[in-house]
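Tokens in:
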């Protein structure tokens, strides 16, 4: 079962897709676009190309757990993605994923200029890994 994780953003959307076993993150990319339709098209095509069975999308909550305006945008985008792909989008609490992604990139010696290009893919990978871990724990 392939799972695709999405870190949806205003200018860049990170994507991570699991291997066929649904155990490990495999493919990652960043969609560089501010146009929602273009991002939806790209995600739909990636899901088709990789035979994705399940979608999980980072859901931005405030640190106190409440939902702000960004959460509303994500819900609307997730609904559009469900309509396009025919797959349910599971919303995953993404608090701190971008911060952790920057820390990972910094620890690996990447310069801040490079962070911008890859941080969204790393954040999507963190979302995917968290989701896959939870699924594994629920099975045991």
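Residues out:
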């Amino acid at each position: 079962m392939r799972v695709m994780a999405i870190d949806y953003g205003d200018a860049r959307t990170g994507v991570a897709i699991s291997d066929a076993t649904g155990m490990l993150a495999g493919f990652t990319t960043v969609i560089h676009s501010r146009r929602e339709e273009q991002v939806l098209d790209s995600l739909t095509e990636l899901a088709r190309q990789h035979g994705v069975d399940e979608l999980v999308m980072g859901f931005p909550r405030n640190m106190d757990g409440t939902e702000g305006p960004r959460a509303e945008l994500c819900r609307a985008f997730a609904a559009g993605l469900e309509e396009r792909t025919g797959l349910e989008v599971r919303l995953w609490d993404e608090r701190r994923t971008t911060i952790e992604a920057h820390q990972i990139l910094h620890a690996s010696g990447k310069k801040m200029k490079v962070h911008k290009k890859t941080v969204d893919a790393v954040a999507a990978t963190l979302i995917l890994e968290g989701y896959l871990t939870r699924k594994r724990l629920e099975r045991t």
